[in-house]
From TrEMBL, chain B:
Subcellular location as annotated: Cytoplasm
Gene3D superfamilies from the UniProt entry: ACP-like
Protein name in UniProt: Acyl carrier protein
Role according to the record: Carrier of the growing fatty acid chain in fatty acid biosynthesis.
Gene that this sequence comes from: acpP_1
Record Pfam families: PP-binding
Length: 245, 79
């Protein structure tokens, strides 16, 4: 089950906690992976850890030309892109009253517009080969909202609507488009929270612990697999019961 | 140059699974040949590959009949 041998995957934001776990898991199932992100040193380190079947192409998600180049280079390097994991994302948290236009726009540009551009560029080859798996990493806050994250929540909710539309456009070509929505996951991003903040969060999580990046990666492996061919336009929530939608 | 027309028609027949006799120059991809909008995108991609040309989106939108495609390719093909 969930064998990805011979498949080629592009993972953005692969230098982060969740992105790195996703890349490792896809690789472990046999896929060739291209690691993308902005921090080349962290990507190279992960590539070294993975060994064969791993490539690095750094790219910025706020730069349209860079995104086109990323797809071209990844297709040239791996021969194709079967699995696209749009995991790259940033936050610029602020209460709305104080949120600057730049904070709003930057988050929308990277998290939503960048994902659309990258997916649009990659779907050409997927259409031709009659196979594709697009997995967009959204967030629980895209469904529930979160104070201080109007921009981030809007972008993540936008991903869900976008994915449903793409799923309908591409289903006849055997391309599936799904979202995966993590809850609170233990990563370098959540490590900086104080114990009190963590306690506050855990009070809302029935599982009474943070999730792990591996638990997110397992969901990505499933959505990327041949076995998930009939799953499209869906959002898989992995959040320890924090929200049941 | 008639070669181009034959190659275009062959691609259309293969892609849309229609009879060669249906693929007349005035046949519209969507109305007459049963293509959906995604099929038209794929046809353009196939033309691009076959003739080694690039068909920009605004030009692609104007290609609605078999004759439109042949005309565009005739005036833009390198060989």
């Amino acid at each position: 089950m969930f064998d990805l041998s011979g498949k080629a995957a592009l993972v953005t934001g692969a230098s982060g906690g969740i992105g790195g776990a996703i890349a490792r898991a896809l690789h472990k199932q046999g896929a060739t992976v291209t690691l993308s992100g902005t921090r080349a040193d962290a990507l190279e380190k992960l590539k070294g850890e993975l060994g064969e079947r791993a490539h690095v192409i750094a790219a910025r998600m706020d730069d349209a030309a860079d995104i086109d180049r990323l797809v071209k280079d990844a297709e040239a390097t791996m021969g194709k892109i079967d699995i696209l994991v749009n995991n790259a994302g940033i936050t610029r948290d602020n209460i709305s009253m104080r949120m600057k236009d730049e904070e709003w726009e930057k988050v929308l540009q990277v998290n939503l517009t960048g994902t659309f551009r990258l997916t649009r560029a990659a779907m050409r080859g997927m259409m031709r080969r009659r196979f594709g798996r697009v997995i967009n990493i959204t967030s629980i806050v895209g469904v529930t909202g979160n104070p201080g994250q109007a921009n981030y929540a809007a972008a993540k909710a936008g991903l869900i609507g976008m994915s449903k539309s793409l799923a309908q456009e591409l289903a006849s070509r055997a391309i599936t488009v799904n979202c995966l929505a993590p809850g609170f996951i233990a990563t370098p991003m959540t490590d900086v929270l104080t114990d009190e903040q963590k306690k506050g969060i855990l009070g809302r999580v029935p599982a009474d612990r943070l999730g792990t990046p591996d638990e997110i990666a397992a969901g990505v492996v499933y959505l990327a697999s041949d076995e998930a061919a009939y799953v499209t336009g869906q959002t898989l929530h992995i959040n320890g019961g924090m929200a049941m939608i | 140059m008639s070669d181009i027309a034959e190659r275009v028609k062959k691609i259309v027949v293969e892609h849309l699974g229609v009879e060669a006799a249906q693929v007349k120059e005035d046949a519209k991809f969507i109305d007459d040949l049963g293509a959906d909008s995604l099929d038209t995108v794929e046809l353009v991609m196939a033309f691009e590959e076959e003739f080694g040309i690039e068909i920009p989106d605004d030009a692609a939108e104007k290609i609605q009949t078999v004759g439109d495609a042949i005309g565009f390719i005739k005036s833009n093909a390198k060989s």
